[in-house]
Automatic annotation (TrEMBL), chain A:
Key words, A-Z: Cell membrane, Membrane, Oxidoreductase, Transmembrane, Transmembrane helix
Presence of the UniProt keyword Oxidoreductase in the record: yes
Catalytic activity, EC: 1.10.3.-
NCBIfam families: QoxD
Annotated family: Belongs to the cytochrome c oxidase bacterial subunit 4 family.
A GO MF term: oxidoreductase activity, acting on diphenols and related substances as donors, oxygen as acceptor
Full protein name: Quinol oxidase subunit 4
N-terminal signal peptide: none
Automatic annotation (TrEMBL), chain B:
Topological category with respect to the lipid bilayer: Multi-pass membrane protein
Keyword Transport: yes
Gene3D superfamilies the UniProt entry points to: 1.10.287.70, Cytochrome c oxidase-like, subunit I domain (1.20.210.10)
Enzymatic class: oxidoreductase
Function: Catalyzes quinol oxidation with the concomitant reduction of oxygen to water.
Protein name in UniProt: Quinol oxidase subunit 1
Catalysed reactions listed for this entry: 2 a quinol + O2 = 2 a quinone + 2 H2O
Cofactor info, note text: Heme A3. Binds a copper B center.
Length: 106, 645
């Protein structure tokens, strides 16, 4: 049910932040690809830069598409972010831990 | 590509399927034309954004998929009944268990549950539709087109045959060179869009669209379980999306994420698959838990025992479900520390599940139980699910798992949890909410026949498999020898499978029979139930509630009924115009373009996939410039509706 008319107000202007966010996401992704393929940095440097770019892009997503600054209820926001961080850490760190077996024992 | 490579040839079973598909299509087109129903189909169903109609379409699609997956299962049982059977060859058998697993999980269990969630949850929280009705239609149609794309594989191009888990390197380009695996990747990818959108849609719906008087801790348990499920969907499905995309890159564009050579990590696929896959099993079980809670509470005529414990245990399950995925591949040999950790988390997750079992038992305790068909399914769920759960804890012990892994013991375990959990819940929920959807009940006598035959068949089919597993029969073998000594239990299992098939057919007949002969409902509350969806009249008007209901606590409708019994007169308030969303043809057209793009990618026909993607983009642009703000249901129309019901 598209019940209230508030939406009309927030949609009346041109969605600059979305366009800028979209452009930045593409640029950052291409940049990461370029660094991975052509920069010639050492593996560690590449990893650090790519992870850094990923964090920047995550921030852009949260700010420009996911309206993180627009809510009145901050506890829900904090809770969601904490849960998301928990899942992200569990998945990424867990994967590295699980998949490292080959490196250690082979 | 030659035509005989495009169509699957050489197998009489496939030719039979070709003929039946062609006949069904011709029949459907003929019937629609003869009865002049094309316009009705388009304007009432294909373009609908009404959550009730979308829910019904989800359920119809899921029942069709249950039939398809069930036929697959029957073919497998037929092949395994006797040793050295020549009914199916190895390749065909592999294809069938792959499509059986994928269809049952992705295209049967989830849509069936999401269908019931679609119908019930907005009504339970006193909403007139979901938060994003247009998106809801996109969800359904992308799911449907993804499912169709996956399903045509067996007549066009060939089915995937690497198992529903599609482990690489078997699913990689070298060992699965045909297009079958591409169908798997693209079909799941397109359907996954729909699931993710459903997750976001219902999360927002439940949080933002409740009647203002309903607090979080007063929501019905089914709504709670749906909320938690949506959270899991939102966090788990992106992992599947990424994993599928990476494997698609590997197969179509020559990348090396999961290959054996050039630095790929084949086991990373298994890892990513189960990071999604384990939360996925909770996605298909939590709504089932929610339905059983509603049904048991209604037919025991008691409020649910331990409401808060129910809610918190689901929250804990949601958190833990992301910490157990390695138990699906203990035998990969990740080392003692890893296996111990995931062994313990797996056992931990059994604790909140156990809490829920006790809550259901205590809800039954001293209840005045009515043995309706829906209640019978719920009651059969408890002992059967406990068998599945306990054997699950056996599998959770990493050291013991080395014995059980990849045997029929595992097959028996997950069928015990998925069938007696999810499938029983789908049937129970169908019987329970059927009058809300179709304005008549399913016949109880046929329902009970179907119930007893199916449950007996289920136990006969899968209980022997535990012992087959302990006797060493590996899963996914297409045949076995006489000397293995597995025949007697396989015969039992096949017999049980037949009974399950008969139970399903009786259910289908019941749908037809009840449509013809069941008396139409006169009230919206056939079961003397407790939650707000039953406060709507029969049939439910398209705007759901003429007045938004008031929730004065848990079991809001029960409280209303008690107040009326105590002599409180419902006050007559004047109606106001109701704002509703307009129907739109964009979702179905967009999804057809997704289908075209997917089909093109399956065969690496770039012109076709680019054409499809341009179509998708074009429909998105059309949607972006669509300024339709919906319409108002006039007071006269509401009065007309409310008079007749």
């Amino acid at each position: 049910m598209a019940s209230n008319n508030e939406q009309t107000n927030s949609h009346s202007h041109f969605p600059w932040s979305h366009v800028v966010g979209f452009g930045l996401s593409i640029v950052l992704t291409l940049l990461a690809l370029w660094i991975g393929f052509y920069s010639g940095f050492s593996l560690t440097t590449i990893m650090v830069i790519v992870v850094g770019l990923a964090l920047v892009q995550a921030t852009i997503q949260l700010l420009m598409f996911m309206h993180i600054t627009e809510s009145e209820d901050s506890t829900v926001q904090v809770g969601t972010i904490l849960y998301a961080v928990f899942i992200a850490v569990a998945v990424v760190a867990g994967t590295i831990w699980v998949m490292s077996f080959g490196m250690h024992y082979m | 590509m030659r035509l005989d490579e495009f169509f699957v040839t050489g197998d009489p079973l496939i030719y039979g399927a070709d003929v039946s598909i062609a006949l069904t299509l011709i029949g459907a087109i003929f019937a629609l034309t003869y009865f002049k129903k094309w316009k009705w189909l388009w304007s009432e169903w294909l373009t609908t954004v009404d959550h009730k109609k979308l829910g019904i379409m989800y359920i119809i699609a899921a029942v069709l998929m249950l039939f398809r997956g069930g036929v697959d299962a029957m073919l497998m049982r037929a092949q395994l009944t006797v040793p050295d059977a020549g009914f199916l060859d190895a390749k065909h058998y592999n294809e069938i268990f792959t499509t059986h697993g994928t269809i049952m999980i992705i295209f049967m269990a989830m849509p069936f549950l999401i269908g019931l969630i679609n119908v019930v949850v907005p009504l339970q929280i006193g909403a007139r539709d979901v938060a994003y009705p247009f998106l809801n239609a996109v969800s359904f149609w992308t799911f449907f087109m993804g499912a169709m794309l996956f399903n045509i594989s067996f007549v066009i191009g060939g089915s995937p045959s690497a198992g529903w888990t599609s482990y690489v390197p078997l699913a990689g380009l070298e060992l699965s060179p045909g297009v079958g695996q591409n169908y798997y990747l693209l079909g799941l990818q397109i359907a996954g869009i729909g699931t993710l959108l459903t997750g976001i849609n219902f999360l927002v719906t439940i949080l933002k669209m409740r009647v203002p008087s309903m607090k979080l801790m007063q929501m019905p348990i089914f709504t709670w379980s749906s909320l938690i499920t949506m959270v899991i969907i939102i966090f788990a499905f992106p992992v599947l999306t990424v994993a599928l995309a990476l494997m698609t890159f590997d197969r179509l564009f020559g990348s090396h994420f999961f290959t054996m050579m050039d630095g790929g990590m084949p086991m990373l696929w298994a890892n990513l698959f189960w990071i999604w896959g384990h939360p996925e099993v909770y996605i298909v079980i939590l709504p089932a838990f929610g339905m059983f809670s509603e049904i048991i509470s209604t037919f025991a005529r008691k409020t649910i025992f331990g409401y808060k414990a129910m809610v918190y245990s689901m929250v804990i399950i949601a958190g833990l479900s992301f910490l157990v995925w390695v138990h699906h591949f203990f035998t990969m040999g990740a080392g003692g520390a890893v296996n111990s950790f995931f062994s313990i988390t797996t056992m931990l997750i059994a604790v909140p599940t156990g809490v829920k079992i006790f809550n259901w038992l205590f809800t039954l305790y001293k209840g005045r139980i009515r043995f309706t068909t829906a209640m019978l399914w719920a009651l059969a769920f408890i002992p059967n699910f406990v068998i599945g759960g306990v054997t699950g804890v056996m599998l959770a012990m990493a050291a013991a798992d080395y014995q059980y892994h990849n045997t029929y013991f595992l097959v028996a375990h997950f069928h015990y949890v998925l069938i007696s959990g999810t499938v029983y819940a789908c049937f129970a929920g169908l019987y329970f909410w059927y009058p809300k959807m179709f304005n008549h009940r399913l016949n109880e006598r046929l329902g009970k026949w179907s119930f007893w035959i199916f449950v007996a068949g289920f136990n006969l089919c899968f209980f022997p498999m535990y012992f087959l597993g302990l006797a060493g029969m590996p899963r996914r073998v297409y045949t076995y020898g006489v000397a293995d000594g597995w025949m007697s239990m396989n015969v039992l299992a096949t017999f049980g499978g037949l009974l399950m098939g008969i139970g399903f057919l009786i259910l289908v007949y019941n749908i037809y029979y009840s449509f013809r002969y069941s008396p139409r409902e006169t009230t919206g509350d056939p079961w003397d139930a407790r939650t707000l969806e039953w406060s709507t009249p029969a049939p439910v008007p398209h705007y759901n509630f003429a007045h938004l209901p008031e929730a004065k606590g848990h079991d809001a409708f029960w409280i209303m009924k008690e107040e009326i019994k105590q002599g409180k007169k419902p006050e007559k308030k004047p109606y106001k115009p109701i704002h509703m969303p307009s129907y739109s043809g964009v979702p179905v057209v967009m999804s057809v373009f997704f289908f075209i793009a997917g089909f093109g990618m399956v065969f690496s026909w770039n012109w076709m996939s680019i054409l499809g993607l341009i179509g998708v983009l074009a429909t998105m642009v059309i949607r972006s410039f669509d300024y339709d703000k919906g319409f108002y249901v006039s007071v006269e129309e509401i009065e007309e509706h409310e008079k007749t019901t």
